[in-house]
């Protein structure tokens, strides 16, 4: 195997932190190479340097033996490096082909482009109709648009950032088949993920980053998931402990909750009914875009519904807004950390005030008690191991995992009776995810009713007592989580979500 | 090649230093312009920035003018900045200023010649209410029918100007004025006059109100829930809704507050420096205040300084026209440069500037 990309001594410092410290590794042609590390370990900085979004302070790269220093992403693309981001940048109101044309410097005529999209999608087993509106696509199909956009450039190196976080198990296996075929044709793939089992099945080699440095390099097939986690974190991870207890009385009851979609591409909630008991965790699975955001908004009070549709211990609370619901200990943590759960440019202290003002008594007659707010923020930071220089730092300066710990911690410490969380560990590293799951289990243990909306099925199986699937705004009847197989869950979720069955052409 | 790199957090040093840098750059660029017009740049700059305050000959006249001009600008801009911070764009302060003046003057003229201690306080109340009511029109249309408050508030300025003309020519016309348009001069009506509080300083009740508004806005933005909600709604509307902020209530509060303060400014002007309701009574304070609000970075203390600076360039500009024969258009260009540089160098507080492409060794 010849090295396609060689990275030597890449260093990049930001004020106060060295994100990458003399990072060296190489990727061979046709290799699927995993980049593994906790949040804040420097994976995204490293990838951004390879993709030309960030320039290194020191060190260099060679691509096929030639010096490679992309000044911007277009230079990287010209050199044959493509990237599929964790967050899609697609326009809902445009068709697949139009979206792909937008990303090209000199797009061919639409008809020709559509033909090329069809050809690539058939070759790699990624069925996709170029004429469909992106707004009508599932998350898995949207990801295909991004992948095909990259493949049209005929890349030598394809970077994938957490690609499976939005996919059903069936979709994951389709994606893996595609990636293996690409690799067999000689395309190298740099695969970033925190799902250790996936890395073990898919990747040829793994480079492990910790605190900005390469700590180890290994062949993941030869290691257990626990070994990989240990290399990544530098310490053994505890799987969340779960003490069996019998659930108490019904705390939250939702009956016949229907909510028309506010936007053309949103999802309408249709006749949702369920109940949660004290001390119980209800897991709500489903692929993104099936009504998760809408369900959270209805439960948090952001979208008021008919009073009787949501009841707390029999009392109708559907019409209450977020503040009155907080007063009666119904709390929520939305999925989008920056811009929804937290204000990006505000300090952590101010973000603590954002939801905790009422329950923590941080304001008297409207006047804010900043010392108490700061103390509460510091308590969240300490109790949930949020890594930040202090509560005065802006929310956007935190890594995703750290901010997520802050957001969950902020709600948990307010002693909720009902806590609704959406995607509590999305894009969060293994250690932080384990801490968050443990916190949710402890909260339920202490008698709260917890609803966890997530796309991560392993996570839901690990912590929930009962499981329900959200599909096109409908919720399946909850079933006890114990004993459910991955296959059964996949079917509850709607299988590969109304997609044509994929065939990878040989 | 120059590249901009976003700072993880806005730089505190640059936030303070950029206005100073901008004034310095304006002096350089303005000096070049004055030199091109054949005027001595040093003298011109001195005439604009120094003479109004310290020249023995002019200072006694122009120094009080500084507060007289800055007062309404600061009062209106402080109110506007609250809405701007929340993403609520009241562009019609000029109209609210007129309506406040009409309401305040209307009370005085209706009760003329009543001589009672409560007359002036009543006018203050009426002035605030007048501006508030005029601002409620775009506010209610926005909350009820989702109309755009920028358009509605702006167009209402022109309506207010017509109302002003109608009042000056009709209902409020001075019956003893020999048929000329315009109301009685309130400065000649002691119970209603907004007189200088300290002789020779230009300090009148409106200036005092402006200072109080600056302090109150500062306290509200830093220590009060409402100020927090205003900042939150402006920065991240979705997080604000999650935090329980009612967007409609915020529209009513912000437009109402800015309207009331603009109305107050109009009322203090009509009962003080202007003296009477007349066509063309409004001199564009309501529009200039928008510039002042942004020059002051929507921060109360910044607005205080920006208002004083803006007033200074007006007075100094007039002086330079009068003394050096610099054309009025050149003075406006000079003020434009100030705004241009202030907004231009603002990029430094949010971005690092990197010179040259980074090459990897």
From TrEMBL, chain A:
CDD domains: ABC_Carb_Monos_I, ABC_Carb_Monos_II. Its main location: membrane. It is found in: Cell membrane. SMART domains: AAA (SM00382). Keywords: ATP-binding, Cell membrane, Membrane, Nucleotide-binding, Repeat, Sugar transport, Translocase, Transport. The keyword Translocase applies. One of its GO terms (cellular component) is plasma membrane. One of its GO terms (molecular function) is ATP hydrolysis activity. Residues 5-236, 252-497 form the ABC transporter domain. InterPro entries: AAA+_ATPase, ABC_carbohydrate_import_ATPase, ABC_transporter-like_ATP-bd, ABC_transporter-like_CS, P-loop_NTPase. It is a peripheral membrane protein. Gene3D superfamilies: P-loop containing nucleotide triphosphate hydrolases (3.40.50.300). This is ATP-binding cassette domain-containing protein. It comes from Rhodovulum strictum.
UniProtKB/TrEMBL annotation, chain B:
One of its GO terms (molecular function) is transmembrane transporter activity. The keyword Membrane applies. Keywords: Cell membrane, Membrane, Transmembrane, Transmembrane helix. It is found in: Cell membrane. One of its GO terms (cellular component) is plasma membrane. It is a multi-pass membrane protein. The chain crosses the membrane at residues 12-37, 66-84, 96-114, 120-141, 150-172, 203-221, 242-267, 279-296, 303-324, 330-349. InterPro entries: ABC_transp_permease. PANTHER family: ABC TRANSPORTER, PERMEASE PROTEIN (PTHR47089), GUANOSINE ABC TRANSPORTER PERMEASE PROTEIN NUPP (PTHR47089:SF1). This is ABC transporter permease. It comes from Rhodovulum strictum.
